[in-house]
Structures are given as C-alpha cells and as structure tokens.
Amino acid sequence: MRRSLLWIVLGTVGLCCAKKEAPLAALPFADDFNRTDFGAHWQGDPGWRIQDGKVFSAGTANRPLWLRARLPQDAIIEFEVRSDSPAGDIKFEMYGDGVNHQSGYIFIFGGWKNTISCIARLDEHGSDRQERKDRKPVKMGQSYQMRIVRQGKTIQWYIDGKLWLDHFDSDPLSGKGHDRFGFSNWQSNLYFDNLRIQPAGEK
Asked: What pTM was computed for the model?
C-alpha cells in the first residue's frame, strides 16, 4: 500500500513538473527578428543570436538554427541575407529534420571559398548535387533577396528575382523527418532577416 502511494505521489509530481513543449509555428509564417530573443519557435546552436534586428552567426560548424514549423509539400520561402566574410559561403537548409545538418536539401551560395553554389540532397558533397561555378558570386557586405519555390518534384532558387539554380528530385523529401527549415553556417559572418514562409499557390 505504501509503495503504491509513493508511486502515485511521484507520478503526480512528474506530471506537474513536466515542461510543456511550445506549439509549432503556424503557416503562413513571417519573422522580422526585431527583438532580443528568438522565442519558442526557434531552436539551435547557441552560436546563433539576434543582433541589430537580424539573425547573426559568426560560424556554428554547420549546426543550423531551425524553425519549429512544419513545411508543407509545396512551399515558398523568402528572406534576406548577407555575408560579411570574403569567403561568402551563405547556407540554409529545407525539408530537414529540425536537428541535424544535411537531413534535407542544403543550399550553398558561394561556398568553397566563394567558388561554388549548389542545391544538394542529404549530402552537400554528393555527386548528384546541382551546382554552378562562379568566381566570387557573393559580394561581401551586399544584401541578397532569396526566394525558394518547391512545387512537386522541382525546387527553384531565385536570387534578387533571377533564377539561380533549380533541382529535380524524382523522390522529393517531405513529411516527418523532412519538414523543417533552418539557417545554416560553417564559419562566415552571416546575417539573415525578414523571413516569410507560405504554402505554394497562396498570395
């Protein structure tokens, strides 16, 4: 009897003290980061912070800052970004698992010392990535407008209104384990701002 009462008491304490997880952000979603803390809708490496109304990182060794929202099968994602490093190396990830780097599609603008841009699936070094080689495409200190449209099996990546790269995937990543968006960074000074996400087809 005493043992049963003990388990009841411990169970009650556990329920009272259990931390409730914040609900996921709803779509459409927008964030201008005009505050000091990320809040419950964001999670990631402590190397990420808000600085002067923008998401900032000086390098997190590819540990993304993930948005706690489920991406739909078809989505449009827009944001502004700049690199204050001569290496460029602007990175972000879509349809990942919300925890691990390279768990979805990886986008790199001016990677590998500002010489290669790519859309990669699960492996940024994979032979199946879509890439282009431009000498120093990222201008240090310049802000770029990113727009990524995923519809069906096709991803189109626009920079400042012009198509930069596209990627066809016969088996597109989606659903549980492949439904999160994140800002990423290797070791550049990157600033992200004015994020907007909506299901494709909505205005």
From this structure: 0.89
